[in-house]
Amino acid sequence: MNVIIFGATGMVGQGVLRECLRDDGIERVLAVGRSPTGLTHPKLRELVRKDLFDFNAGADFQGYDACFFCLGVSSAGMNEADYARLTYDLTLGWARALARINPAMTFIYVSGAGTGGKAMWAQVKGRTEAELLALFPSAYMIRLAALRPMHGEVSKTRWTRIGYKVLRPLLPLMHAIAPGAVITTEELGRAMIRAARSGAPKRVLENRDLRALAAR
Length: 216
What we know:
Layout: E1 2-6, H1 11-22, E2 28-33, E3 44-48, E4 66-69, H2 80-101, E5 106-110, H3 120-135, E6 139-143, E7 146-148, H4 158-167, H5 171-177, E8 182-184, H6 185-198, E9 204-206, H7 207-214
Parallel strand pairs: 1-2, 1-4, 2-3, 4-5, 5-6, 6-9, 7-8
Helix pairs in contact: 1-6, 2-3, 6-7
């Protein structure tokens, strides 16, 4: 299997990239983002685009079986128009470009727990999910809740880094006693790979579903 990862330098993307590079069943990984990952690996190829709204998906994107879309921003301090541009517009722009190349591709989108609720961000994420599910016959929405970094994965958002520094001692306990609340970066990566390779029981996956998929 050959995979594309958008956002491989964020905390989620770092974990997913690590599991992809460790998986013997994945032959090629294309990491797309605004900055390089800083990693070197025989499987890994990087495409740095300073303007991610340049949706030109030419030959660089051909021959891939799955896309793991891990790009995302916090809605804190943002109005709906700006948040929708960086969430709905950016995601669907790339999804449509990739669907034109390979409509049979599996598209896996990292969303968030609470998507579809009344909050502005939840409504925008909900519209994004609905469009992706309609666009790709094989698409999975990852409604991620708390994530436990296992190998030094770090968020690019300052307030998230501060929050994780405070909560770090509690995450192992929460992971043990609240299977629906916390998932490790290892479990997340494995679950996404297995969904891309073999499918999943449902198209919208919460933390509990992801942990079960990772344990297969």
